[in-house]
Design a protein that fits this description.
alpha+beta, four-stranded antiparallel sheet
Length: 285
């Protein structure tokens, strides 16, 4: 159900009050970071009736030192928060993929159990401080040198209700670079991700990304190389974020014609109808 302007304004007041409370607790330099100061200004302007344009979601990161290890708790506050669950996940460069999946699953289960209508970011930080050592004590597999592989290549087409969170978008890009997979991420509503590479790398990327808290995300199509690994299956040289304007608003609602044109330029226009259920032509065709 869509929020009325008054309901949205009241929820955003709660967001600002919670942020003020967090700033009083995490007051040391670098402990609390607002990902986009302009978004914070937009939220304040909407609450103060200086604009009628709903602001973007507020993204924040809390840096915690637990047992001399750095944890990042990243949170995105949707407009319906605190009456809906925030998008929240934890990062730590010492945890392996399985540990990241486990700690984020448990954290989101904890947050989901909190009383609706009550801010929960501080409670999430307390949970993390109380339980982080349980995940640190899990025996980590020693990194082993990858054996030479002759894996077939795959391409995943991933569809999300929306991709707005700057922290999630950063994680999507950084993990892709780390695992050396290629493709693109299109933020907005809906969100679309194409990721391609060796099966084990693409699978590891997908398992990590989908463990974050999403309203809705799923792998809609899987393509695989019919021949042995190699050839012309891979269509991208790197992984990048792309955005096409629709009605003059970047990263909001995608321009389907421009998306089709981009996909066709990478020899992927054939799959557009299968993803969206409609046919389209880029402008000028």
């Amino acid at each position: 159900m869509k929020l009325s302007p008054n309901q949205l304004r009241e929820n955003l007041r709660i967001h600002l009050a919670e942020l003020e409370s967090l700033e009083s607790v995490f007051c040391n330099p670098g402990e609390l970071k607002i990902e986009d100061i302009c978004t914070l200004a937009d939220v304040k302007d909407f609450v103060d009736d200086k604009t009628t344009i709903p602001p973007p979601y507020l993204d924040l990161t809390i840096n915690l030192n637990i047992d001399n290890m750095k944890f990042e708790l990243c949170a995105t506050l949707p407009h319906k928060y605190p009456y809906s669950q925030p998008e929240i996940f934890v990062r730590n460069d010492k945890l392996n993929r399985e540990q990241h999946v486990k700690i984020n699953k448990d954290l989101n289960e904890f947050v989901a159990g909190q009383e609706k209508g009550e801010p929960c970011i501080f409670s999430a930080t307390c949970w993390l401080k109380d339980h982080a050592d349980e995940y640190l004590q899990i025996e980590q597999e020693q990194p082993s040198k990858k054996e030479e592989r002759n894996e077939k290549f795959v391409r995943y087409w991933i569809y999300s209700h929306h991709i707005y969170s700057k922290t999630k978008r950063r994680e999507i890009l950084e993990l892709a670079q780390e695992l050396k997979v290629t493709g693109f991420c299109m933020p907005g509503k809906p969100g679309l991700i194409c990721v391609e590479g060796c099966y084990s790398d693409v699978s590891e990327w997908w398992q990590t990304i989908k463990s974050m808290n999403w309203k809705k995300i799923f792998c809609k199509i899987v393509e695989d190389d019919k021949e042995e690994a190699g050839g012309n299956f891979l269509k991208f040289n790197n992984f990048e974020e792309v955005a096409f304007q629709s009605n003059g608003v970047k990263c909001n609602h995608m321009d389907m014609g421009e998306l089709y044109k981009f996909m066709k330029a990478h020899d992927l226009g054939y799959i557009f109808k299968e993803i969206f259920g409609v046919e389209t032509k880029s402008s000028g065709e």
